[in-house]
């Protein structure tokens, strides 16, 4: 049974391919243009699993190019990870983000419908909740809010998928709203490869510890949280990956009641920036140069998930704790050394 993974060379797509190879008999086929990744990811996957994964190095913005993938394969379902994801860049280049994330999705759905692929798992984000007033954030928390063009592409994509799924006799869509995916495969041979200077906390921590960056700046310690630094829901990328297997099985077994649904993927635990930094230092016994700086514009003080729907609907819950996230992230950074994209 073939599953199409768009964005299979990326951070979450590649870890999901590993989970598929390690725990199912499905054949993952990737479509990734490498706009934010590198072909070497597939060598790393082969190194870990012994399996060569087929990738089509195509851009989803070009529908006719991508037709080849559907002509050559019959898919049981699609895991759609491919998107651009840098919040700050999306503010500078909104057109690029709308073209890539929205046009890419429209083309994919167009082909999916034409070739009769029934199941679609979509990579959504906690960004659709914007600045939520009540915590934890559950699926009944009002969404449809965003703070950036990137965030709006997630809100709009969910709406597009909902409308199309509701009007179709045959399409089932499940949007998974990730909180903050971090960490790396337990082998240390696969992890996140940020382009340029990382925006996200954990790659910034590991790059500082390895000496690529001089110092981590903690963006603000005057928030209304237990230690004044922002609170987030960090979730191990391998747990995110395993949720995709559970989600795809849920659709394949015909268990989803409505044509469109959405589920939070978080640990359910709020961790402050300071606590994340301390955990990194403690589990890895390394020095980390850091200082408190001003707030970063656009940051919400606190957000974390109510993840009970994922357990009740998918039978999924995260099993890797913060220490494991920090241990694996550091193992991967050591494998990578000072390399970045
Ligand atoms: P990533 O950048 O590591 O992976 C995305 C992959 O998609 C990259 O390999 C990139 O080359 C590819 N891609 C992008 N546009 C493409 C196009 N038009 N055609 C073909 N390939 C294309 O990102 P990630 O962290 O693995 O994120 C995967 C998905 O999860 C994205 O949709 C992202 O918005 C979503 N998400 C990520 C996070 C996070 O913090 N990492 C949180 C919530 C949601
Ligand atoms: C986490 C915390 C920073 C870097 C982003 C997207 C969101 C979703 C997940 C895709 C914040 C602080 C960070 C640094 C710091 N992605 N920080 N120093 O902003 O919660 O979420 O990724 O959908 O949409 O916005 O993640 O890792 O950037 O920041 O102090 O050098 O770490 O201020 O409080 P964020 P992050």
Which helices and strands, and how do they pair?
Blueprint: E1 2-6, H1 11-23, E2 27-31, H2 40-49, E3 55-56, H3 63-72, E4 75-80, H4 87-92, H5 94-114, E5 119-125, H6 149-167, E6 172-178, E7 180-182, H7 201-210, E8 216-219, E9 231-232, E10 234-236, H8 237-252, E11 260-265, E12 271-272, H9 273-284, E13 290-293, H10 308-314, H11 322-336
Parallel strand pairs: 1-2, 1-4, 2-3, 4-5, 5-6, 6-11, 7-10, 8-13
Antiparallel strand pairs: 9-12
Residues 85, 87, 125, 127, 180, 199-201, 204, 216-219, 230, 232, 273, 296, 299 line the site of UDP-4-deoxy-4-formamido-beta-L-arabinopyranose (WQD).
Q: Tally the helices.
A: 11
What characteristic shape results from the CA principal axes? globular
CATH superfamily of the domain at 2-182 and 234-266 and 306-318: NAD(P)-binding Rossmann-like Domain
Can you tell me the CATH architecture of the domain at 2-182 and 234-266 and 306-318?
3-Layer(aba) Sandwich
Structural class: alpha/beta
Strand order of the largest sheet: 3-2-1-4-5-6-11
Order of helices and strands: EHEHEHEHHEHEEHEEEHEEHEHH
Strand content: 15-25%
Measure the end-to-end span: 33 Å
Number of β-strand runs: 13
Radius of gyration, CA atoms, in whole angstroms: 19 Å
Helix content: 40-55%
Profile the largest sheet: 7 strands, parallel
Low-confidence stretches: none
Can you identify the CATH class of the domain at 2-182 and 234-266 and 306-318?
Answer: Alpha Beta
The bound ligands are: nicotinamide-adenine-dinucleotide, UDP-4-deoxy-4-formamido-beta-L-arabinopyranose
What's the mean pLDDT score?
A: 97
Under CATH, the topology of the domain at 2-182 and 234-266 and 306-318 can be stated as Rossmann fold
């Amino acid at each position: 049974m073939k599953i199409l993974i768009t964005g299979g060379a990326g951070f979450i797509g590649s870890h999901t391919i590993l989970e598929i190879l390690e725990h199912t008999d499905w054949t993952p086929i990737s479509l990734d243009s490498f706009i934010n990744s590198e072909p070497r990811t597939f060598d790393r996957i082969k190194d870990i699993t012994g399996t060569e994964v087929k990738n089509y190095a195509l851009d989803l913005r070009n529908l006719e190019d991508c037709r080849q993938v559907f002509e050559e394969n019959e898919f049981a379902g699609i895991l759609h990870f491919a998107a651009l994801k840098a919040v700050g860049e999306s503010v500078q280049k909104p057109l690029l983000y709308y073209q890539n994330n929205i046009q890419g999705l429209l083309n994919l759905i167009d082909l999916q419908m034409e070739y009769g692929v029934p199941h679609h798992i979509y990579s959504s984000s906690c960004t659709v909740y914007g600045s939520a007033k009540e915590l934890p954030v559950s699926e009944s928390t009002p969404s449809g809010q965003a703070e950036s063009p990137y965030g709006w592409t997630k809100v709009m994509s969910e709406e597009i998928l909902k409308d199309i799924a509701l009007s179709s006799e045959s399409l089932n869509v499940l949007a998974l709203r990730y909180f903050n995916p971090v960490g790396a495969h337990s082998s240390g041979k696969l992890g996140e490869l940020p382009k340029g200077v990382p925006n996200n906390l954990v790659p910034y921590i590991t790059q500082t510890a390895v000496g690529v960056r001089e110092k981590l700046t903690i963006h603000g310690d005057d928030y209304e949280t237990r230690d004044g630094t922002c609170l987030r829901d960090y979730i191990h990328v391998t747990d995110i990956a395993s949720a995709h297997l559970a989600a795809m099985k849920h659709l394949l077994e015909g268990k989803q009641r409505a044509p469109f649904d959405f589920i939070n993927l978080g640990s359910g635990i709020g961790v402050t920036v300071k606590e994340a930094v301390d955990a990194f230092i403690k589990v890895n016994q390394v020095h980390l140069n850091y200082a408190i700086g001003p707030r970063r514009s656009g940051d919400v003080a606190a957000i974390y998930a109510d993840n009970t729907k994922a357990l009740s609907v998918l039978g999924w819950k995260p099993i890797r704790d913060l220490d494991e996230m920090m241990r694996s992230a550091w193992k991967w950074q050591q494998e990578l050394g000072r390399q970045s994209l």
